[in-house]
Amino acid sequence: MPRALIRRRTLGIMSAACAAGVFAPLLAARSRAAALGDRLTLGVAGQGEMYHLPVLLAEQLGFFKAEGLDVVLRDFSAGALALQALQDGTVDVVSGAYEHTIRQQLNGYALRSVVLHGRAPQIALGILPRMLPQYESVRDLAGKRIGVSAPGSSTHSFARWILAREGLNPQGATYVSMASATAAMAALRAGQIHALCHSDPIIAQAEQKQGLRVVVDARTIKASHELFGGTMPASCLYAAQPFVQKRPDQVQALVNAMVHALKWLQTAEPADIVKALPASYLATDRPLYLAAFHRIRETFSPNGMMPDDAPAVALRALTLAYPELAATKVDLARTFSNDWVRKARQKFNV
């Protein structure tokens, strides 16, 4: 064989090998995506709230793609609306409050939490002093207007629970929807509500800019444990039981990405958070956002596991907030599973 031909064939083989080395990971990722099925739509109840920060990080840092998933985040103004979208079939999975898995079981709709990313509510209730100048205790909120993200959402449940905990009728206040920071600030400024029950950064902004005075705070592990008598589970990824059964590979991939994000979050510096988030999330007030993040950081789960005591703590709180639940029976074992998280923890050594 002529020497020139030998050189051309050798170069061709080397080029092919090089191309294989470059494109093999990309092809493998595409192959995994094809094997896992179609695009997944993930409903998020208030994407800008820190409650869902691990989900946003998993998307922004490419952890979903690394697991071969094509995930589309769909933002909703409140948890109740994201839940409705799941029931309507317009989203596949929801990042929302674990409590929905309990409440919907009582309605005959089986939901299952597959990974927990919040181990405290990250919610606070504050009063507007100029609207309640004589305020002494939570009992003074009876008959008053309280801003919440939406009826049926976790902020609404939290406000109801606070009243019930004081021996008041949980329906003894008027709950006003305040889905966005803009709506909440406008309502506080205009004196349309007496109190606000929400999560950060909305509460932090209301404290700084509208003089909100926090009177019940569940934004730290210690405070949450003292309030609820144990671990109060909060944000999680949940899906309908048929989805979990029919698409276990996609569920595992989702959980892998979330556990990866939670691990990343444990050691991330403020500069890392700023770099990872879209600029729009920090444009309003970066120092305020980072200060609020620092306060609630410990409430994010380090590994995605549902703690042993958490489901019962959640049920106890819900029964107080919604007395009609007391006469019903809930199978808590059907509302969550740690199986996918255990596999993800092995993969990421957490």
UniProtKB/TrEMBL annotation:
UniProt-listed InterPro entries: TAT_signal (IPR006311)
A GO CC term attached to the entry: periplasmic space
Gene3D superfamilies, alphabetized: Periplasmic binding protein-like II
Pfam families, A to Z: NMT1_2
Signal peptide: 1-19
Superkingdom field: Bacteria
Principal location listed in the UniProt entry: periplasm
PROSITE patterns (UniProt xref): TAT
A GO BP annotation: alkanesulfonate transmembrane transport
UniProt keyword terms in alphabetical order: Signal
Claim: Signal is one of the keywords in the record: yes
Location in the cell: Periplasm
Database matches in PANTHER family: ALIPHATIC SULFONATES-BINDING PROTEIN-RELATED (PTHR30024), TAURINE-BINDING PERIPLASMIC PROTEIN (PTHR30024:SF47)
Family: Belongs to the bacterial solute-binding protein SsuA/TauA family.
Designated name of the protein: ABC transporter substrate-binding protein
Taxonomy of the source species: Bacteria, Pseudomonadati, Pseudomonadota, Betaproteobacteria, Burkholderiales
